[in-house]
Structures are given as C-alpha cells and as structure tokens.
Write a structure and sequence with these properties.
Elements: H1 2-9, H2 25-48, H3 55-62, H4 67-81, H5 85-92, H6 95-105, H7 108-120, H8 127-135, H9 139-153
Helix pairs in contact: 1-2, 2-3, 2-4, 5-6, 7-8, 7-9
C-alpha cells in the first residue's frame, strides 16, 4: 500500500530513491486502486481468520465500496488466498447476512439475472420486482444479463 501511495505522490521507491520514471495519471490511479483492493482483501481475510468472524470488519469493507471496487477486491482476494470473496463469505457467514453480502459481491449482470429468476420463481410472477429490475437497467446491462442467463441456463 505504501508503494502505491508513493507512486501516487511522486515516483519513488519505498527506500526514497528516485526511479527516474514518470508514471501517467492513469497508471498512478490504477496502482493506488490495486493497492487499496489488496488492503481490503487482507482486511476481509483477517476478519475471517481464526475462531469466529468479525462481521463488522467485513461490513466496513464490502458496504463502503462500489461494485467495480468489490470486483477488484475479489480479484485480489482470489489471487492472494486462492478462493473468491463470495466463497469466503459463504463459508464464514450465515442467514440473511450471508445472502445480502453475496448479493452485494455479485457482478451487476449476475445480480440482475438473480433478480429476474427470483421474480419469476414459483407460482405467478412478482411483476413489481421484475419491473423495478428491468426499468433500472441500460441496454448494455440488459444485454450482459441476457448473455449471462443464456450461458448459465443453455438458452432463453
């Protein structure tokens, strides 16, 4: 994290020696975003380590991030600890708390398909849930949800 912050502020390595390379603003933002995701992945890991789970620490990380940031945390968590963030949450949490955290961690197109399935499950259709989900999506989001649904169910 310190290395990424130093790269953000000025181009130096952690020992204070100038590297002579100039990072573009995009490279600086990407380095900082990656470092924050790695730090958040470590926080979730430590919250789940040992006996019991520090649910407050998980909430602090997950509920304070956007979907894109959560995806970066998931990628960092998987790279560092060998399992997805959703798998870790499934293992450590239970009940409605687990459902909410898993929903928050889903990519948008997956959560949209989940809502479509929930609206159409069982007898009848939950028209209000279906309408609320459909009208909030752009054409690109609908296309992504449709593609994900078709890949996972074998068709329409």
């Amino acid at each position: 994290f310190r290395t990424a912050c130093l790269a953000w502020i000025e181009v130096e390595d952690p020992q204070g020696v100038s590297t002579g390379a100039e990072l573009s603003p995009v490279q600086r933002v990407n380095a900082l975003g990656k470092a924050i995701a790695e730090r958040d992945a470590d926080h979730v890991y430590l919250a789940c380590k040992g006996i019991g789970t520090n649910e407050d620490a998980i909430v602090e990380v997950i509920c304070a991030r956007s979907k894109a940031q959560i995806q970066r945390i998931d990628n960092a968590y998987h790279a560092k600890y060998g399992r997805s963030l959703t798998d870790q949450i499934s293992k450590e949490c239970s009940g409605d708390f687990k459902k909410v955290l898993k929903y928050i961690c889903m990519p948008p197109y997956v959560s949209n398909v989940y809502m479509f399935k929930k609206a159409c499950k069982g007898l009848g259709t939950d028209e209000q849930l279906l309408i609320d989900t459909l009208v909030s999506l752009s054409n690109d989001e609908l296309f992504q949800a449709k593609s994900h649904f078709e890949r996972n169910t074998g068709g329409a």
